[in-house]
Structures are given as C-alpha cells and as structure tokens.
Amino acid sequence: MDQEAKTANKPAYGIIAVLLIGAFITFLNNTLLNVALPSIMEDLKVGPSTVQWVTTGFMLVNGIMIPTTAFLIQKYSVRQLFLWAMGLFTLGTVIAGFAHAFPLLLAGRMIQASGSAIMMPLLMNVMLVSFPVSRRGAAMGVFGLILMFAPAIGPTLSGWIVEHFDWRALFHLVTPLAAVILITGGVLLKDKRKETDIRLDIISLLLSSVGFGSLLYGFSTAGSHGWSSPQVDLTIVIGVIALTVFIFRQFKLERPMLNFRVYQYPMFTLASAITIIVNMAMFSGFLLLPIYAQTILGISPLDTGLMLLPGAIINALMSPINGRLFDRIGGRILAVIGLAIVTVSTYLFSKISMDTSYHQLMLLHAVRMFGMSMVFMPVSTNGLNQLPVHLYPHGTAMNNTLNQVSAAIGTALLITVMTNRTEYHAKELAQNAVHLAAGKGISISKEQIAQEAMLGGIRDAFFVSALLTLAALFLAFFIKRAKGPADSAEKHPKKGMPDTQKALSN
C-alpha cells in the first residue's frame, strides 16, 4: 500500500516541464501587443476603437472557452488537449504574423486565444493531481512564477521589439518557439485516456458563451463607451440573464459543464472572493500607472515597461518562495501581510504628483508587486485544497473564468472612476483659473488644467483601488488552512482518483 501510494503521488516532471514551457509562451502573448497598438493603428489604418479588439477579442475568446475546460479535461487526455492548445496557438500566431489587414490579424488573435484558454486550466489541473497537499504550495509557486512573470515582461519586450523591428516581429519570433514546443510535446507526452461517456451539454455551452461573452464585452467597452451607453447596459443585462439560467441548469444536470457545487466549500468561496477583489484592484497598477507615466510625466513606452519590470521580476521570483512558506505556515499569514503591503502601497499611489520621480514610481510599484506575490497563489491554492479530487477541473475552470471577468470589471470600474473624476477636477480647476485670472492676473493654460485634472482622476482611481484591497485584507483574516476531502484522497490514492491522475502517476 505504501509503495502504491508513493507511486500514485510521484509527480510527472517531464509532462509538467513541457506544459510549463507551453504555458509561458501562451501567457506571454496575453500582454505582448499592448505597447504595439499605436504601430498597428498606423500600419493597418484603423482607429483606437477598432484596434482595441486585438486585446478585447483575445479576452472574450478566453472568457468563452475557459468554462468548457472542466469538460475537456475530464473527456480528453493531457496529450490530446496540449496538442490542440499549442496547435491552435501556433496556427493563430502564423496567421497574425502575416496579416496585412486588420480582420486577418483579429482572426489570428482569436485563434491564438482559443489555444491559450486551454493551457492555463490544463496546467493547473495537472499540478493539483501530481502533488500531494503537503507539497502543493511549492509546486503552485512555480506555476505562479510562470503565470506572473510571462505577461508582466510582455510590455517591456514588446517595447524593445517595436522600437527595432516591425510589429509583426512579435509574432514571427514566437512562431518557431511555439512550433518546437508543439513537436516536443507530441513526442514526450504519452498519456492515454479510456473512452469516457461524457457529453457536452450544448444548451449549457450556448448559455455560458452568451453569458460570459456578454459580460466581458459589456464591462470591457464600458470604459470607452460609458455606463450610460445602451450597448453596454444591454450586453451586461443579457450576460446576467444568460448566466443565471446557466447556473440553475448546472444544478439540474447529472454531469454539469461547470459544477457550481465547488462553492459548498467555504475556503474555496472565500478564496474566490479575495482573488476577484484583488484582481480588480491589481489593474490600477497595470492600467493607470502607464497612463500617468506616459501622459503626465512624458516617459516613453519602453521606459514605462522598464519601470514596471523590477516589480514583475520580484513578483515572479517570490512566487516559489511564497509557495514553500505556504506549505509551512498556511495561507492566512501570507495573505494578511501581502494585502497590508498592497493596501498601503496603493494608497501611496493615490498621493502621486507632477514631481514624483521615475525611481520613486519604480520602487513603489516593486513594493506593491512584492505584496501581490503573497496573495494570489497561496489564497487560490488554499481554496483548491479543500475540494475533492473530482472537482479540481471545475475549481480551476471557475477560478480562471472569474479572473477574466474580474479583470474586465476592474478595468471598466477604474477607467470610469478616472474619467468621471478627471471631468470633475477639470471643471473645478477651470473655475479656479478664472478666479485667479480675475483676481491676481495669473493665467493657467488649458494643457495645464487637462494634466492636473487627469492627475486628480488617476489619484482618485488609485484611492478606490486601495479601498478594494482593504476589503480583501478584512476577508483574509477569515482564511483557515484547508483540510478537506483532498486529504482523504491523498491518504487513499485509489479512491476517487480521476483518469488524469492515474495516467500522470504511471
């Protein structure tokens, strides 16, 4: 029995290594185009409202595909899913790299996204079933290094490439790497799955696609169209209705596409709430800081990316360390300390001025990302640890879907706060300028008013972000070390072990 348990729990390092490299390439691509958008606009003769679909479309496809991954992981082998994911990603990269018209570029990005959406849940599920609970923190810490570092270096790498090459080089450089990983995975991955009598519920798929797709589209466009836009309101309402019907349908199905019974486990529910709030707040750094640096301080895109790079490196390097700490002391201490750091540093961002230096911004962002590194992986892993093994695919799919939705909501919320408060400050500053001109003969230019107003809007948005992290800090005090059904599965390897785990452990 001991030998059997040891064999069952032996991690498949070869498979994990291939998946990690594949995931790194797909995650990197999430933010690789952000800095290149102005170059794409100029080359393909499209406006800002059109070019933003390169990123919005990618996020929409991710949001639609991710809920289906729980079904896919149960139905197909790791090898089959990896080959499909990397195959689609490579195909999309080739199409986008040779695109000379915007519709073709958009098609390539959406094909990329369909492959990328499968990789994250697949890798996370393999990590969960490959490592026992006592070692899972360290394993998920390595996963966190990939998850955090790859998209974080995207803007810096993109800025350098765009300055020296054509924007299409972003795809041409990725294509051979993706092809090598695809071929390597095809050779190394040997796991097979027996025929499983699981069928995808088409109605659930349609409801999920309409629901998550409409929500993501509505919140993504709220920042540019405004909350009063019928286009925004209608899509959000449609999304809420479709998701409500989708959720009720899942409880009636014997084998749901996405099992919402994961929320019967309190630590998973608490982890979801904390990660949603922090994910929304995190975008204040990724979104508002570049706007402030480039628009108000006049820093170039490349220098802006370099300013964010130390924080990204710290976040990535701390992830495995925090994973090991999680195995020893649990998630609550890490989350409380991390969220305290994030809250204070975010509040300090709400005090930035015209005189804040480049190095001050770099240091403050690095401190903030140091705090972030203590939150996401420890909190998520603690929540997943309480789930029984057969709910791992549903837990990972749920987490990744909520990450997409909360990112869209956070972006829309912070852009709306910044826009509305900028308008408020502009009116207030304009009135003060009139009084100064009349009383003291001091004139203030429209450009000065516009910059001061935007600075005020950005500071207010950071303050709202600080309030969000403060709420997450309060919730973190209720975290308890999860010792649920996953522990019994670890003690009795045969009991409840899914085919994926059996295949990986042989």
Instruction: Indicate the mean pLDDT.
Output: 79
Into which percent range does the helicity of residues fall? over 70%
Largest sheet: none
What are the secondary-structure elements, in order, as H or E?
HHHHHHHHHHHHHHHHHHHHHH
Please identify which CATH superfamily of the largest domain we are dealing with. Answer: MFS general substrate transporter like domains
State the CATH class of the largest domain: Mainly Alpha
Count of DSSP-assigned helices: 22
What fold name goes in the CATH topology slot of the largest domain? Answer: Growth Hormone, Chain: A
Plain-language structure description:
The protein folds into 2 domains: 2-200 and 257-505, Up-down Bundle (Growth Hormone, Chain: A); 201-256. The two termini are 15 Å apart. Helix 6 packs antiparallel against helix 19 and helix 9 runs antiparallel to helix 15 (301-329). 51% of the residues are buried. The chain is mainly α and 506 residues long. The protein has 22 helices and no strands.
